[in-house]
Amino acid sequence: MPAVGGIATTGGKEYPGNLTPFVTVTCVVAAMGGLIFGYDIGISGGVTTMESFLKKFFPSVYRQKEEDATKNQYCQYDSQKLTMFTSSLYLAALVASLVASVVTRRFGRKLSMLFGGLLFCSGAIINGAAKAVWMLILGRMLLGFGIGFANQAVPLYLSEMAPYKFRGALNIGFQLSITIGILVANILNYFFAKIKGGWGWRLSLGGAVVPALIITVGSLVLPDTPNSMIERGQNHEAREKLRRIRGVDDVDEEFNDLVAASEESQKVENPWRNLLQRKYRPHLTMAIMIPFFQQLTGINVIMFYAPVLFETIGFKSDASLMSAVITGCVNVGATMVSIYGVDKWGRRFLFLEGGTQMLICQAVVTAAIGAKFGVKGMPGDLPKWYAIVVVLFICIYVAGFAWSWGPLGWLVPSEIFPLEIRSAAQSINVSVNMIFTFLIAQVFLTMLCHLKFGLFLFFAFFVLVMSVFVYFFIPETKGIPIEEMSQVWKSHWYWSRYVTDEDFPYRGGVEMGKNGRAVKAV
């Protein structure tokens, strides 16, 4: 296999420690930061199918939809103003993630989570009370600032708090929260759309206050990570915190490694400039390519616009919202599979299996939509079996994403960065994610109008490319302590030309054998 193939279950550096109730509860509370991101993804698509919302803010879209200004089903929601409502959030998140990098490094992960919760709460209140489009956009931008801070801090927090043997499962709690947020948003949209008087959309948008308060209060009661405390010179407190987190008194080896990593990071005056150094080439590549590929799976097309998409392929408004609820349930269930398997089967297996599954499903959905809608977008009456087939394969596609690129797109970057560049690299990871989330959200409806059913082939092509990228360039990181991660690059068939023992001196921990398996130092 042309990458690090696996990690031996015995041998290697094994820090003492247990999965204590304290660290479990801490990670569960921190992972709730994903709720704000997920709730927003789920709520926006449903709200934009509510007639009262379209009448008030986007009357031209409503007229085009209702009065059959065009009979082409592919183009009925094609409005740059409407997509700006959805995608403006991600531009704001991009800006916030750059600021959050400095806050996270200098003041700790908790403060970034607190800022994220407060900003998201403010945006939710403005959106729920919106009287004009400018209020919607302002609210969305505040939501974006909140998401930028939360997405910067939460994955790092989880990776640093979790014992390395359980890091994958606990970190994926963040993605699980995102999927729960999407599901809750879809269910609320379904019921709020039925409210007489047409003000249900206010409840949908204003309801974002609830997940915002959860992460705000959570950030006030959570402890800071030992890594962050050491980084800020609080070594004694960090040792005591590490003992409590691990549930054992003997934490000297892990503590000393954390201090050594921190001392190295203190020598770095400009982590942004340092990212360009040759030895960080694999880290920079992953910080850019993983979020880039994650967005080009096409998943946000499904999650943003699931109600719009299902209505476009012929379902009625209620049925389309219900279909979105179904895909939301699949998303949550499949993420649970990832939590179970990520530390058993490894990251690479899930990446490759999920990619294959998504590729097959996209080909089937393309054929199904193409056969009925053609290029003119006029399907006529759609039989029930057809609708079931489309929803079924979209659900299988969502499942493939939810146990591969969904959680691993956040997990792998957060666990591979050395402490000295961790905040800056995570900031790039979030920024790239938000740039491409924005671009896809902004151009999707226009692409659907012009590419027709070929849009799914567009994303299928990238799924193929990203699976090849995983096979050749992403090493297995299962079971490697976070401060020993440099070993996987030094033993990789390609990245070893950039990362050497001189760059990351061996400290007597994990050694990687010729076949890419971890062996114990002798």
Write the layout of secondary structure elements.
Blueprint: H1 21-31, H2 33-47, H3 51-57, H4 59-66, H5 80-107, H6 109-128, H7 133-161, H8 167-192, H9 200-206, H10 209-221, H11 226-231, H12 235-246, H13 252-266, H14 271-274, H15 281-295, H16 299-312, H17 317-345, H18 347-373, H19 384-402, H20 405-416, H21 422-451, H22 454-473, H23 486-490, E1 510-512, E2 518-520
Antiparallel strand pairs: 1-2
Helix pairs in contact: 1-7, 1-8, 2-7, 2-8, 2-10, 2-16, 3-4, 5-6, 5-7, 5-21, 6-7, 6-9, 6-10, 7-8, 7-20, 7-21, 8-9, 8-17, 8-20, 15-20, 15-21, 16-17, 17-18, 17-19, 18-19, 18-22
Molecular shape: globular
Q: What integer is the average pLDDT?
A: 82
Q: What helical percentage do the residues reach? A: over 70%
Main sheet characteristics: 2 strands, antiparallel
Q: Structural class of the helix and strand makeup? A: mainly alpha
Question: Nearest-angstrom radius of gyration?
Answer: 23 Å
How many extended strands? 2
Beta percentage is under 5%
Uncertain ranges: 1-11, 509-522
Taken in chain order, the helices and strands follow as: HHHHHHHHHHHHHHHHHHHHHHHEE
> Span from first to last CA?
26 Å
Provide a count of the helices.
23
Major beta sheet, strand line-up: 1-2
